[in-house]
C-alpha cells in the first residue's frame, strides 16, 4: 500500500517536474504539507522515503500550525551535491549517508545547533554541534523462508554465513544479493565500515563473488527480490525497510549478525544557508523529542535513537559518527577499495 | 568636616601583601596558561605530525604505465585525529605539484618541509582556522621519482576548549594562592604588629608611680621608640620629683619662719606689759596662725591635686584612720571645751583609696567643725556603711558624717562652699582661707566618692564624706 502511494506520489511529482526551477541536482520526488498558503514554509531535503516521514511531519505540523513543509526526496549523492556544490537553499537536510553528511559538516556547510538541543543526546549519536542522529537502523541480512529448506542451520554470524554459502554453492549460486558499492553510497559505506571492522568482510566478498552474487542499488529492491523468490539471502539490508516490509508480507526472516551488526545513523543537519534556521531547529528538536521519536519509531517504522538497544544487543555497532568517515570517501581510496571489491566479485 | 582616620600600619601591611600576592597569582595564572597552551599545542602537533607521516607513508607509487598513485587513507587515523575535542579534518595530497586528492584549496606552507620532519603551520581555511602538518617525500611514479606533498589539517577547537579548561583551573589555583596569601598576610600582619601591642600593654599596665624605664624585649625595629619613651619617662620622673621636692621645700620654708615668728611674738607678749603693744602682738599672733593655717591648707590643696592626678590607691582600714584623726584633734577641741563623740563600727571597713587624701579631707572637716562650734558643745563623728542608693544600683559606700552645733550654712547652697577661696557669709569673725572644703570635695572626687554639706536638725551643720566600698 505504502509503496503504491509512494510510487503514485513519485509519478505526480515526475509530471510536475518540468515546471520546477532549473537546478544542478536531481530529485526523485517532492511533497508539500500543511496549508498551501502558509507564510512560513520549511524546506526539507532528505533521502528518506516520503511515506516514512509523513506521519512525523504531519505530527509536527499539527503542533505548529501556520507552517508549511516542502519535502524533497533525492539520492544521498544528490543531497550532498545540492548543498555542497549547488548552494541550494534548504532548511533541514536528513540523510542516511553518514559519510556525506559528515563531509558536509566537516567542510563547514552545517550550522551549529543550539546546545540545549544536544545536551541530552548520547555522544555516539552526534558530531560536534553540527550533526545529530534522528534514527538508528541496524544493517541486517534477510533470509527467504525457503533459504534453509532441508534443515540447514540458521546463520547467526558472518562466519556462519560464509560456511553456509560455501557448503551449499549449488543452492545459493545466483541467489545471493547485496548492495553494489559502486552504485550505492549506502552500500559503499557499509562495505567500507565492515572492511574496517573485520577481515571476514573480504572472505565473504570472495565467497559471494564465487556464487555470482547479484548486486543491487537499494534495500527495497533486494527485499522485493527475496519476496519474489529470486533471492534466498540478501546481505546488508537496512533493517527498517526489512521490518517495515516484513509487517505486511512475511516470507523472510531478518537476521542481525551477532559478530557485529552495523548500525546506521540517519542524521539531520541545518545547512549554513538555511532560510529559516529557527523553524529548522524547531523541526530537528521535534524529531529528537520523545514525541517525535515516538512517531519515528511507531508510525514511520524507523528505530528511534535508543542507547538501551546497545546494551540489549551488544553486537550492535553504531557506525562512528566522526571524520573517520571521510577517509573512505577519498576519491583515490574509494578507487582502491572498489578495485579490491571488483577483484573479489569477478572470479573466474 | 573631613574625618581623618589615623593611618593603620596593619592595613598598609595587609594591602601591600595582598597586592603582592595578587601579582603573584596573576603570574601563576599566566605561566600555567602559557605553558599549558604550549604543551597542548606541542602534544597535538606531535599527533598531527605522526598522522601526516603515516598518511604519506601509506602512499604508494602507481603502476608504471598508469602513472597514478595509490592512496590508502586510514579511517582510524582520521578518527583518532578528530577524537580530541571533535575536530574537523582536511587533507590534500599533491604529486608532482598537482593535487591528486583531497581539498585542492587547502593552503600550502610558506616554505616546503624538508624530507624528514613535518612542518606545522596555522592557516585560515574556509570558515575556520586550521593547524596543518605538511610532509614531503618522493614516490616512484611511472619509473621516476616524483615529489609527494601531504597536507593534513585539523581544527583546534578542542585544544582551545582544553586550554580554556586549563586556564580556568589555573585561575582557580591563582585564586587559592591569593586566598591563602590573604589569610597568611592577615596573620603575618598580626604577628608582626603584636610586639607593638605588647609594648603598649606593658606601658598601660604600669602603676601611676611606676616610672622605671622599659626593659621589655622589644624587636630591633621598635628599639628607637623604646629608647625615646625611656628618655621621656626619665624627664617626667625628674619633673615629678622636682615638684614633690618643691612642695616639701615650700611647706618647710613657709612653716618654719611662721612658727619662729609666732614663738617670738609670744615671747614678746609675755615680756611686755604695755597693753596697746600686747593687743598688737595678739593680733600679730592671730595673723600668723591664720597664715600658718592657710599655708598648711595651700600645701594640703597642692598635695590633694598632685595625688589626685597620681591615683595612688591602696587598701585602707577606714575605722582606725578615723579614730586616729579624732584622737589627734582632741587637744585642739579640748582647748575650746568641745567634746568629740566618735561612733565607729567594730570592723575596720576596708576601702581602696589614698590615705593622704582621706586624712587631708577629714582633718579639714574636723578643723572646720571645731572652728565653727560654740564652746562647750559636742561634735558627732559617725562612720557607717550605706547601702547603694536606689536599692541596688551603684556601689555601697562608707560614709563619715561629722555633725556640729555651729552656725550652720545660713541658707546658702552647700555647693557654694566648695568653690576655691569662697567662704560662708556668716564667718567673718573666724579666720579661714576658703580652701578647706575645696580640698575635701576634690579628695572625694579623686577617689570616686561624694561630699555633702547639709543643715543639721536643731542647728549646726552635717558634713558627709562618703567613699565607695570595694565590689
How would you describe this structure to a colleague?
The complex is a heterodimer of chains A (348) and B (471). Chain A is of the alpha/beta class and 348 residues long. Chain A has 2 domains: 2-135 and 265-317, Periplasmic binding protein-like II (D-Maltodextrin-Binding Protein, domain 2, 3-Layer(aba) Sandwich), CATH 3.40.190.10; 137-262 and 328-345, D-Maltodextrin-Binding Protein, domain 2 (3-Layer(aba) Sandwich). Chain A contains 16 helices and 12 strands. In chain A, a hairpin with a 3-residue loop joins strand 5 (126-127) and strand 6. The radius of gyration of chain A is 20 Å and the shape is globular. With 471 residues, chain B is of the alpha+beta class. Chain B folds into 3 domains: 9-164, no CATH class; 219-310; 312-471, Histidine kinase-like ATPase, C-terminal domain (Heat Shock Protein 90), CATH 3.30.565.10. Chain B has helices spanning 9-57, 75-83, 157-205, 223-271, 275-310, 318-335, 355-372, 436-446; strands at 60-61, 69-70, 89-95, 98-102, 119-125, 128-141, 144-155, 314-317, 339-343, 350-353, 378-386, 397-403, 450-455, 461-468. Chain B has a 5-stranded antiparallel beta sheet. In chain B, a hairpin with a 7-residue loop joins strand 1 (60-61) and strand 2 (69-70). In chain B, helix 1 runs antiparallel to helix 3, helix 4 (223-271) runs antiparallel to helix 5 (275-310) and helix 5 runs parallel beside helix 8 (436-446). Chain A binds chain B through residues 105-108, 127-128, 192, 196, 320, 322-328, 330-333, 336, and chain B through 68-79, 81-83, 86-90, 93, 100-103, 126-128.
